[in-house]
Amino acid sequence: MKDVELKVVERAKALLASGEVARVVGWKKGDFCFDPSPAVFESVEELDGLVYNWFCGANLSKYLIEISKKEGKTAVFLKPCDTYSFNQLIKEHRINREKVYAIAVECLGKLDVEKIKAKGVSMIEDVEVVEKEVKVATAYGTETLHKPEVLLTKCETCQKTHQVKDEEIILHERPARDVDRFAEVAKLEAMTEDERFAFWKEQLSKCIRCNACRNVCPACSCVKCVFDNPASGISAKANDAEFEEQLFHIIRAFHVAGRCTDCGECSRVCPQNIPLHLLNRKFIKDIDGFYGEYQAGEEAEGKTPLTSFTEGDVEPNDAVDGEAK
Amino acid sequence: MLKIAKERLNELYAAISNAMELVLPVKKAGEVNFAMWAEGKEVSLETLKTVKSPKDTFFPQSENMMKFKTDGKNIEILDIRAEKAPTVLFGVRPCDYKAIEVLDKVFLADPVDTYYQNRREATTIITLACAKPEESCFCKVFGIDAAAPAGDVATWLDGDNLYWQANTEKGEALTALVKELFAEGGEAEVSAQQEKTRAIVEKLPFATLDLSRLSPKTSTIYSMTLLGRK
Lengths: 325, 230
Prior knowledge:
The structure holds 2 protein chains of 2 kinds.
Chain A: H1 2-17, E1 23-28, E2 37-41, E3 50-51, H2 64-67, E4 74-78, H3 80-91, E5 100-105, H4 113-118, E6 124-130, E7 133-138, E8 141-146, H5 147-150, H6 153-156, E9 167-169, H7 183-190, H8 193-204, H9 212-216, H10 241-255, H11 265-269, H12 277-291, H13 316-321
Parallel strand pairs in A: 1-4, 4-5, 5-9
Antiparallel strand pairs in A: 1-2, 1-3, 6-7, 7-8
Helix pairs in contact in A: 8-10
Chain B: E1 2-5, H1 9-19, E2 21-28, E3 31-36, E4 67-71, E5 74-78, E6 87-92, H2 94-107, H3 114-122, E7 123-128, E8 153-157, E9 161-166, H4 169-178, E10 183-184, H5 187-203, H6 216-227
Parallel strand pairs in B: 2-6, 6-7, 7-8
Antiparallel strand pairs in B: 1-9, 1-10, 2-3, 4-5, 8-9
């Protein structure tokens, strides 16, 4: 991973120094080795703080909505999953593609520090990954963990490939995988209605309505969100269990249906670890069933299942019963 | 000092809960937060920090504060505050307890926030010392001793026992209520844990954070608390 980071920093510096781009969007070192955060770099000196490591899970695409309005070109590092969000935002005319220089950067899955800590590992100083072994150096000694157990949830079932690239930095190929990303959804579908209601009630009642899921979501890019609009009558900020359980997250899932690329950022940022991505995946699974396989963000243009009509479209009642064609 | 075996903690919760409401760190759908105890709840005293602080006990996110009665042009304000049920807040970390002291400086000072005061007075706080602080902890900078928390009762947890020390009258009253569950002793174990915890705290990356960037007003509130001035 160090070799990739060196290359990332080297390319960023070269692009800025030559004036090809006016700024670089990447990840900046945090207080620890495991908390880098998205950042804009505008000088070669600042780029000494650019990192690309096992904890760069954050999706940078959404930042380009505002940044691509600025003067000059912006270089951005995109992991495979990030490129789907990027494409979808171009399709929705939210990012100006002409003003972005997209660098496809390799990804072998990112780690979830919360999952590492949940294994009782604390005082983390450094992390090294060799194949499926994660070696965590801590003040209490070195711990070896099994990589699949400490991956970000969104990386567990990822089979995505870069959809956008003006150039690429790929030093290690990721082995192809065959995983079923709908396995968890199928488990929920197999429950009785009451069990499923109980599952979501327990999960969603943890919501503290911090709005992190909405803020990070690339599909949530409305200029004025209905939940921030005092005139809408539903802009509540206090967490009222019933509202969060039955409305907020469901409304959001409907709002992003057909546009959600399954980037998994909602679940990554949730401080209460609510598996929000499962709501979106259920919609994706249903869309696949009703209209044929469709992956949002694969194309930057073209028709989408929920915004086009054909005579063979599923009838509403069939959809309610969950009967796919 | 008193001690009780870890396996018997459920008996302690039940005994407290018989007499008053008991709020403590409970695991729900994978996350630990302060919640009302009931038989069968999964208590997690090992979790260093709950997702949310215990502040909600004193400041619920929403509450009915008053009612209005209108009669023509007259408006009558009805005070609907009821006596707050006696509550025990258990498992408050030293830093979270310090935060409550800071809240007291603001909300118990003139003009007193009587909603806060009602809850505060009805609540007995049992703190829990830290045995394994994490890299993100910075209690030392604020003069907080992670190994010796304040509170009505201070407790320490190790692999075998919970150790219990009443600090105030409220704490003594609660202790009297549950004393038969406890045995005497534990001073040596607690001292050993304290020594270990303090040594770790010294080595934490934020042990020497620079507080000069705090605004003068914020610094004053903290230093007042640290010096114990009212």
